[in-house]
Amino acid sequence: MDDKPTPMKSRDNLKLCLQRSSVLVKLWEFLTTYFLALGVTLMLIIGSQWPTSGAFLIKIHFPYICLALCFLVCGLRTKTDEITVAFKSYKAIVWGILTILLVVPITGTQITKTIQFATMMTDNMTTSESAVVGNVTAIGPTEFAFALQVFFVVPASMSAGAILSLIAGGNFSLALLLMVVTNSVGVFIVSAMLVWLTDLSSGVSLTRLGEITLVFFLNCFLPTVCGKLLRLVRVVAEKVDKHENSFNFAIAFLYVLSTWCEVSRARIEKEFYNIISMNIFIIVGYSSIMHIMFLVLNWIASGFLGLSLPVKKTIVIVGSHKAVAFALKIIEFLSNDVGSHRLMSIVCIIAYLTLLVLDSLIVCKWSTIREEKESEGGKTNPRGKYGTMPQEDD
Description:
This protein is mainly α. 74% of the residues lie in helices and 2% in strands. It is built from 16 helices and two strands. Strands 1-2 form a two-stranded antiparallel ribbon. It is globular and about 65 Å long. The N and C termini lie far apart (68 Å). The model is unreliable at 117-136 and 371-394 (pLDDT under 50).
């Protein structure tokens, strides 16, 4: 004889269903909040374990395609009021340029120079091309230290900074403006700054560095302009605003895919297998400490300048991020006297990926800060976890 449902059993079943649904809701909120960080971590695993796949994607220009589509969607998301706010934020623009082109390069290179030289084990000599005979820096051969100095000197990231700013709820237009200005100026001053701040005896040809700016305009700036022009069509703007959360996740997804190739690029280099694990951990640790220091510095400066939260997020992220493509191009055109170019390239990529992982975690949390503040005032946020600062419609 079957047991008949009793009120007690019904309440227990209802309680169990609510508990299960609560767990699923929390899991979904976690996945949506930290989608970028989880995606970047997944790409690190895939790119390191199956580097040949990333090498193939590089050949078909997959990362450029992803970034171009990403900036096209960013342009579709950019509203006129956000552009106006960006150009009116003169304090943020001035400090952003100063911190990207002067504060971070000078601080980063000089601190790296203070690393004490120490005699290491013979098996720690990670390249036969190194000019070092017996003494190497605490983070490896001299190539490591010089590569990090180059990484600190280069301008703001030509893609990641703006995208991460948008996801964090910052001002995408301001981020793009800082990227354009600092990379354009960087073409003319980075070579001289390397000679000034490092032991490099001669600079790099400006015409060669000009290639980087051209790629940036074609791959990032032009798609953004095209997206913004498409948004001027009212029907397009209405569709984008209606499905805004989906577009925001599309931006994060495309950016995550673009990082795949960077991991594989470092992994397929034969010099990568000559680097001992301890050196890699030290590079990651040192890069993390320096990056966190720059994040805190820019956060304090932004607070001192009285910047709004979206603008502050942009300055902190863009002002602390670095253009790995710029650094790799500089290393490519250096003379052989500085050491192994491939080894230095690997160090720059490792440092960049370290910054990317840290920023992805910070950005994911920052994307919820505005929502929490709005909810205290009884407001709701239709943008979900990702989105730029609230703007009026075009």
